[in-house]
Amino acid sequence: MAVTFKQGDMFAEPADAIVNTVNCVGVMGKGVALEFKRRWPGNFDEYKRLCDRKILRPGKVFVYQNTDMLDQDNWKFLVNFPTKDHWRGKSQIGFIDKGLDDFLAQVAKLGIRSVVLPPLGCGNGGLEWKEVKPLLVRKLSPVDGVEFLVFEPSEKGKASGSVNMEMNFERAVLIKSFGDLTDYFGGSLTRIVMQKIVYFLQAMGVDYRMAFARNEFGPYSDDLRTVFSAMEKKNVLKGFSSDTRETTVVPEAYKLADEFLQGDERHRAEEVIKRASLLFEGYESPYGMELLSSVHFLADHEKISDVDGIQKALSGWNPQKGEKFSSDIIGIAYSRLREDRMIH
C-alpha cells in the first residue's frame, strides 16, 4: 500500500496504530507528545518507567497496547518513537533511520495494517522536513499490506499575527528562558512559575529592574504581571489571560529572540538559562518554585542565614507556608541554593 502525506489533525484519523515522537528521559512536554500524555496516561506511565530504567533508547520503539474502550477499536497500538536522547537536545536523522527499522519490525510482528505518523523529528525536534520526508518514503514505501498516513509540518506553529515587540537582551533572555524551560513544567507555565523564573533570572544578573516583595506564593512583582499581560497582547505569549492561565511562548517570538542573541550576548544567555535549568531540577512545579524562591528571598533579601531562622520566617510569612514546608525540605532547598551559588 502507498504512503500518503497530508496536513491537519492526526488525532482525527482512525488507524490501528498512532506514532508519538519522544525523548528518552521521560518527558512529554510539547505538541503531539503532550496530547499523548493527556489522552493516554497509562502509556505515559509505562514510557516513563522504561526511561527511568534506561531501557528506552534511540533506535528502538516502545509499543503500548491501548485498551481504552473510548477509542472504539482505533489506535490499538501507541508507538513511542525516540527521535532524541534528552528533551533539551535536537532530534537526529540517524535515530529516525534506525528507529524506522525497529518500528517496521514491530508493525509486522503485531499485524498492524494502518498507521498514523507525525513528521518525525521536525518542529520542536529541529530537523528539516526536506531531509525527513525522503527517508520516510524510502523506508515505508516497500512495505506491503500496510497503509501509512504521514502528517506533514503545517503553518499552525506560527503566530496568528506578527510579534509586536522590540527585542533587547533582557527580553530575549526572558522569552528564550520561557521557551526552553517549558518542558520542565509539563508543557506550559503557570503565573506563579513565570514570576519565579524571572525572579531567579534577575538574581542571576539579568537586570529587569523589578521589585519583588512578599506575597502569598513567594516573592512577587505586580509590575511583572502587567508586563506578561502586555507580552500576550503583543503576540509574544499566549494563554496568560485564558481560563486555565497556562502560558506558552508563541513560536515566532521564540525564533526572533533566539536570532537576536548573537556573540557574547548569546553565550551569556545560554549560560544563564543553563544555570536556571540546573537550579530548577526537582522543583518543576508551582509548589517547588514557591519553596525555592521563598527560601532564596529570605536568605538573600532579608539576610536570614540559617535553616531554623528561615523556617520561622516562613511561618510568619503566612500560616500556609509554615504548614506545607517542613524543616527538612527547607533545608534541602537551602542546600541547593548554596550549591548553585545563589546564596552564600
UniProtKB/TrEMBL annotation:
Catalysed conversion reaction: an N-(ADP-alpha-D-ribosyl)-thymidine in DNA + H2O = a thymidine in DNA + ADP-D-ribose
Protein name from the UniProt record? O-acetyl-ADP-ribose deacetylase (Regulator of RNase III)
Q: Name one GO biological process term.
A: peptidyl-glutamate ADP-deribosylation
State the SMART domains in the record: A1pp
Ranges for domain Macro come to 1-159
Q: What is the lineage of its organism?
A: Bacteria, Pseudomonadati, Pseudomonadota, Alphaproteobacteria, Hyphomicrobiales
Source domain of life is Bacteria
Give the InterPro entries listed for this entry. Answer: ADP-ribose_metab_enzymes, Macro_dom, Macro_dom-like
